[in-house]
Amino acid sequence: MTNLEIAWIFNEIADLMELKGDNIFKVRAYRKAADILHHLPEEIENIYHREELNQIPGIGKILASKVEEILQTGRCSYLERLREEIPQGLKEMLAIPGLGPKSVQTIYKRLNITTLEELEEAARKKRIRKLPGMGSKTELNILRGIEMLRRNCGQVPMGLAMSLAEALIADLKGLPEVERIEITGDLRRGREMVEGVDLLIGSQAPQGIISVLNKSPKIKQVLSCDEHRIEATTWLGIRVIINIVEPENFYLAWQQLTGSAKHNQRLQERGDKFHLKLSPSGLIRSEGHEMLPVKGEEDIYRYLELPYIPPVLREDTGEIEAAIEGRLPELIQLADIKGDLHVHSNWSDGVSEIIQLVEAARERGYQYLAITDHSKSLKIAGGLSEEKLREQREVLRSLEESLGDIHLLAGVEVDILPDGSLDYEDSFLEEMDLVIASVHTHFRMEKDRMTARIESALKNPLVDILAHPTGRILGRRDPYAVDLEYLMEVAARTGTCMEINASPDRLDLNEKGIRKAKEYGIPLAINTDAHDALRLEDMRYGIITAQRGWLERKDVVNAWDFEELKRWLGL
DNA sequence: GCCGTTTTCGGCCCGACTGTTTTCAGTCG
């Protein structure tokens, strides 16, 4: 089982314990352990085999024995006991923003409600407001929350699906019967939330693959399988579909299964003009029933007299027209990125030392890195005082000098306070190389006020970048109410950059916002917002999202050379 | 449940908002 899956188990234990009313510090120990596992630089299985579990800080005797049990048996008896004790629906209720364990407990004990459906009904019938500490707003909040959960029902964030897909590929790639294996479906297109993991295998002997999957610890249950298709579900409840085709049909099947359905329909319409019929099993010229050879996806597009259209664009949002007219964007690539402009160190709420972040940036071949810790009012994140930031700047300056091969920017992620002012005086912000502004509090402001709040930050000439402009957390928190298009108008005037936050939990701006921002000519930055050196890795999710927003290298400030960036920052 | 080790018990990120109260518990970042 992977680190991520064990982390999920610990998180579920923590949720259930909290619902039970267990000691909060015990609960927190499980959460912390989950977080540690999630960010472990190597597979815990290896650590276990070296008998070094006890050396991981945060994992004591008891948690180590649970890890051991999970690795050995694929099960966790403690979790199974908790699951029997606590109805599954209560855990789902916890996902409603504003409903915590105490409220869920009250609802369960007083009204005997155990499912979201019952909860929704009770809220509609105004039965929740009769409970102690709850009122009409709680009911409204519950209904809104359930609606949000329904919208994301059955979908998983791309980052989670991607790591599972890559783990499965790693398991299957080495099999002699697997000639080729690739990601397909909406995950390949880079959608922010996906239905599950879709893989395509080119193989002449599919039977062996099925038996390997049946035994895989990553797979909880194979739901159906024949020699062309396997459908399974993982321990985290993620749906996995693996299609298997003859190797000579691989590319056609890959293109067809990647979709989107709308894109493929448009392709077929175009095929009709050329008397071509597209299907996963063959590209046929209808007159002579001649099967055309396909040696790559490019061939398919070429038969249709189109340039190759990358998967991220295949949504029928203008890519076919652009292809016909020869104006497909030259999409930004991961290799174009020259630095990360939003990273947290352990001076505030990050876990890595500055030097570790810098090393990670150098390993990625970056020209520059900005350290942007939190500002002073964000107490929980260990926001830094002016003095601390000055001290950090000195550290960065001398580190930069001693290393000599990377430019370090002394930055800060300054909170935009509810009244629109920033968390430091302008006179201080002037000292910083890079100022990122963002909202971390008072999310539920009314739209006009929130818009005005962010507008005033954009209008401050010292603000270089607006971070995570809508504040959403994928599948968990909706964007705050804000007139984004108006803010883009403002940003276009002030020349303020907007961020594409690459954290797979955020992806904010999203692809729609990015395309809009590009229309307005706003400079964009793709930043990881990493709180851990390993998470500089998340840049790739930002790139995919930027590509889906049709961005090119020139649109992205951290794809510029340092000299150009410096000029733009006025340094 | 973990940690420390000058502690084997007593801490553990902490302050503010929200919606409910009528002085505060619960939730969140």
Summarize the structure.
This protein is an alpha/beta fold and 571 residues long. The protein has a 7-stranded parallel β-sheet with strand order 11-12-13-14-15-16-17. Strands 2-4-7-6-5 form a 5-stranded mixed β-sheet, with helices on both faces. A 3-stranded antiparallel β-sheet has the order 8-9-10. It binds one DNA strand of 29 nucleotides through helix 2, helix 4, helix 7 and helix 9.
Question: What brief labels describe this structure?
Answer:
571 residues, alpha/beta, DNA polymerase, domain 1, Beta Polymerase, domain 3, 4 domains, seven-stranded parallel β-sheet, 24 helices
Please provide a written account of the structure:
The chain contains 24 helices and 17 strands. It is globular. Helix 1 packs across helix 7 (101-111). The strands form 4 sheets. The protein has a 7-stranded parallel β-sheet. A 5-stranded mixed β-sheet has the order 2-4-7-6-5, sandwiched between helices. The protein is 44% helix and 14% strand. The chain is of the alpha/beta class. The mean pLDDT is 91. The chain binds one DNA strand of 29 nucleotides through residues 23-30, 32-33, 57-63, 97-103, 132-138, 141, 349, 378-382, 440-444.
